[in-house]
Write a structure and sequence with these properties.
The complex is a heterodimer of chains A (623) and B (160).
Chain A: E1 5-16, H1 20-32, E2 38-41, E3 56-59, H2 72-82, H3 89-109, E4 130-134, H4 137-148, E5 151-153, E6 156-163, E7 171-178, E8 184-194, H5 224-231, E9 236-237, E10 246-248, H6 256-260, E11 265-267, H7 275-286, H8 293-299, H9 305-320, E12 323-326, H10 334-347, H11 349-357, E13 368-371, E14 385-386, E15 412-414, H12 426-446, H13 457-477, H14 493-507, E16 516-517, H15 519-536, H16 544-569, E17 580-581, H17 589-592, E18 594-600, E19 607-613, E20 615-619
Parallel strand pairs in A: 1-2, 1-8, 2-5, 8-15, 16-17
Antiparallel strand pairs in A: 3-4, 6-7, 7-8, 9-14, 9-18, 10-13, 11-12, 12-13, 18-19
Chain B: E1 3-5, H1 15-19, E2 25-27, E3 34-36, H2 47-51, E4 57-59, E5 71-77, E6 82-88, E7 95-101, H3 122-126, H4 135-138, E8 152-156
Antiparallel strand pairs in B: 1-4, 2-3, 5-6, 6-7
Classes of the chains: A alpha/beta (623), B alpha+beta (160).
Chain lengths: 623, 160
């Protein structure tokens, strides 16, 4: 098979993946790099790509400093308690002090932010969330990115990063293929900002058949943020910190606006409040520092998301499911009823379709809630991602190596899901991280750090052969069988994905085992994954669409491997409700008040794990 | 609810193929019309439905949990800056429309071209500020928050 090779040379800043993080990066890069060559490589079409493709009804990270609402350190404290202490507070503080400037620009660009008619401030949904009419959130920020970029390559599936052959551990660009034409694309670049997505679909979803597409995070979030970075040898952090979501059953419609704005609440099948009865036992597991319902009641300190999940899961296991969202009170108000529906249409249309299909009118009945399968990502209420440098003026020594949001690979930056330890960034925070990474990448180039990069033809040709191997493999073995997809010499991407999901579900704490795992299970999981990796050498793709799915699967596998290693390393149950280590059911601050950091050696495939100190922001005089 | 395409309305223009974030809207080689090649990778994001100039694409709730007989239709208009929805229940008891703005400005007109704004100074480059900052942080003349300005420090250990 002969595939044309198209080389884009002399790029200064290559943005891989243009969701909210990538569009922020491309937009900002033009300001600091007036004459720099900025190129976007996006797997889909940047007008509707990434997690915000269908829109959002809220911006979940907005400080409101202009209205005197919050300070950046307030948000750090919020994210810290929600993640049971395990966050990169330097990165969080940095994101929070800049995020409002992104939101104010969005409004100027035409994004409809709702205003509180009484105060004139943005309409708050909760302390951090503001309400928007965000159906066109993504196309609007895409316009900004398109204005800044020299070139936007849509439909390029980036498979690998290119590495410099003159200096070890320095990035040199990326390669991938066009999912329409099949052309091989080479991007030679001084810096790369990986803003690709986190991972849906690595744990078996609760839905079966068609419904498997109705995952909470977009099905096209293929863990490429992690696949690309891990393969390049970048250090990762908090990969064990997968997230489980309590959402409307089957449709996974959002609950934020329902809880915060519509003031709906949950109860068990028998109409009883159930959360508080689980707190005393849970408090023994995690300690009063992390769960103090009285203090939460007094001070509005949130009860961590994972712990509320724990109560829901426990109540269902005790036989008093399903859990209902009590909507029948709020929905009597026609205005609130309308908001309830708009909320779905703005960001999870599928939930509206499901209620229409099942005649669920929340005015007359209380809809069911459930907990989802786990997801691996870094911008919602969880912080998986790369171990990145923080900003010069905030970060302690262990967290700083020259350039904001640069991974441990030189010239390789991250934004959004790619950056670890920065939960609660959401859309606006991811966009902001992209901006921060772009400014730092420009500085890196201006400081002369990207001189003398060498990429041999051999590296490019080796990658090219690797990229198309699934199609070659298909061609060789297809005619061994009469018809169909059952072949002794290959599996197709769907078969591989099913296998990965089953494996992760059963051995790494998925929904069907009640989110519980232990050291024995994790070891078996790793062993099976290793064998699956061997089989992925025999992955077969019959066309370019399947080749896309093949590479998404490979990125998901690499992500899963890191999740297994990290979960094994952290020998405690830090986030009950997200997952449980059955062999270490307590939170253990004495040994594990640390961030977990891994590195996969790209040559040997071996992982090394280490603990990194967890720094917290405290008052000047606080000891 | 995976998407499907009405045979009599689709003219095979490919707008849906061009926009689908999941790469699952393809043109059938026999009928020369679009169809969903992989319904279990469809997020029901409606990107293709909104992009279709013929209103040929619709959705039918996922077969494994959504009964037949419902409808959610949409019309998105960039020129008018609005999106209009119509939701019909299976039992016919609820049939309602909802309209929301999608932009407050003529499409794309208010987004700056950063090639044309003044070049940042060296001082700005060496600072922690981003484009339009510090002004756009609070829309006033204040500066950027720092640990010093807010009386904070970073400390290793267990603190709450």
């Amino acid at each position: 098979m002969d595939h044309k090779t198209i080389v884009e040379d002399n790029i200064d800043i290559l943005v891989c993946g243009a969701g909210l993080g990538g569009t922020g990066a491309a937009f900002e890069a033009r300001y600091w790099g007036k004459n720099k060559k900025i190129v976007i490589a996006e797997k889909a079409n940047i007008d509707r790509s990434g997690a915000v493709a269908q829109g959002l009804y809220a911006i979940n990270c907005y400080m409101g400093t202009r209205f005197g609402e919050n300070k950046p350190e307030d948000h750090v404290r919020y994210a810290r308690i929600d993640l049971m202490g395990m966050v990169r507070e330097d990165l969080l503080f940095d994101m929070a002090r800049h995020v409002d400037s992104a939101v104010h620009q969005f409004e100027e660009w035409g994004l409809p932010l709702m205003r509180d008619p009484k105060t004139g401030a943005y309409q708050r949904e909760g302390r951090w969330q503001i309400m928007i009419h965000g159906e066109s959130y993504k196309p609007i920020v895409a316009e900004a990115a398109k204005k800044s970029a020299d070139k936007v390559y849509n439909r390029i599936c980036v498979t690998h990063l290119l590495m410099d052959e003159a200096k070890e551990n320095r990035v040199a660009g990326a390669v991938g293929f066009n999912v329409r034409t099949g052309d091989f694309h080479v991007f030679k670049s001084k810096t790369v900002i990986v803003a690709a997505g986190g991972a849906s679909n690595i744990f078996k979803p609760r839905s079966v058949g068609e419904g498997a597409g109705r995952v909470w995070y977009a099905p096209w979030s293929s863990g490429s943020a992690y696949g690309l970075l891990i393969e390049a040898g970048a250090k990762m952090t908090q990969m064990e910190n997968r997230i489980v979501l309590a959402r409307f059953k089957d449709g996974y419609g959002p609950v934020g606006a329902y809880f915060l704005h519509l003031k709906t609440y949950t109860q068990n099948a028998y109409g009883e409040e159930y959360e508080s009865k689980w707190w005393p036992e849970l408090q023994k597991m995690v300690g009063k520092e992390y769960l103090d319902p009285e203090a939460s009641h007094r001070t509005h300190r949130p009860i961590p998301t994972c712990l509320r999940n724990h109560a829901l899961i426990s109540e269902v296991n005790a036989g008093r499911g399903p859990i209902h969202m009590v909507t029948m009170e709020a929905f009597q108000d026609p205005h609130l009823e309308e908001i309830g529906w708009h909320n779905f249409l703005g960001m999870t249309v599928g939930q509206a379709v499901l209620w229409a299909a099942t005649d669920v009118d929340p005015k007359n009945e209380n809809p069911e809630l459930t907990t989802s399968e786990p997801y691996v990502m870094g911008s919602h209420a969880t912080g998986c991602g790369a171990w990145c440098s923080g900003p010069e003026d905030v970060s302690p020594e262990e967290y700083f190596w020259g350039y904001n949001r640069m991974t441990t690979v030189e010239g390789l930056f991250g934004a959004g899901d790619a950056v670890g330890g920065t939960p609660h960034a959401f859309s606006s925070g991811s966009f902001t991280e992209g901006r921060l990474a772009a400014k730092a990448a420009c500085k890196y180039i201006d400081d002369g750090k990207a001189e003398g990069i060498v990429v041999s033809e051999k590296q490019i040709n080796d990658r090219k052969a690797e990229v198309y191997k699934p199609m070659e493999h298909y061609k060789v073995y297809r005619n061994e069988i009469t018809a169909g997809d059952v072949n002794p010499n290959y599996i197709n991407p769907r078969q591989g994905l099913d296998r990965l999901q089953k494996l992760m579900d059963e051995y790494c704490g998925g929904a069907s085992v009640n989110y519980v795992t232990n050291d024995k299970l994790l070891h078996i999981g790793l062993k099976k994954l290793k064998i699956m990796e061997e089989d992925l050498e025999k992955l077969a793709a019959k066309d370019y669409h399947e080749l896309l799915r093949a590479w998404e699967l490979k990125h998901r596998l690499r992500t899963s491997e890191a999740v297994l290693h990290h979960t094994l390393f952290r020998k405690e149950t830090r986030w009950p409700g997200y997952y449980y280590r059955g062999d270490a059911m307590k939170l253990d601050d004495e040994n594990w008040h640390v961030l977990t950091v891994s590195r996969r050696d790209p040559k040997t495939g071996e992982y090394t794990m280490e603990k990194a100190p967890c720094y917290h922001i405290v008052g000047e005089d606080e000891e | 609810m995976p998407t499907f395409v009405y045979m009599t309305r689709c003219d095979g223009c490919g707008h849906c193929v061009d926009i689908c974030p999941s790469d699952i809207m393809h043109i059938d080689t026999v009928t020369r019309r679009a169809y969903n090649i992989e319904p279990n990778m469809c997020w029901e994001c409606f990107s293709c439905v909104k992009a279709c100039p013929m209103n040929a694409i619709d959705v039918r709730g996922y077969a494994d949990f959504a009964p037949l007989g419902h409808s959610v239709r949409v019309k998105r208009d960039e020129e008018k800056g609005i999106i209009a929805w119509r939701i019909k229940f299976r039992n016919g008891k609820k049939d309602f429309e909802l309209v929301a703005p999608i932009t407050t400005k003529p499409w794309g007109s208010a987004i700056p071209n950063l090639r044309e704004v003044p070049e940042p100074t060296q001082e700005q480059r060496d600072s922690q500020l981003l484009y339009n900052e510090p002004k756009y942080i609070r829309m006033d003349d204040g500066g950027l928050d720092t640990l010093e300005s807010n009386g904070l420090k970073m400390k290793a250990g267990v603190y709450y």
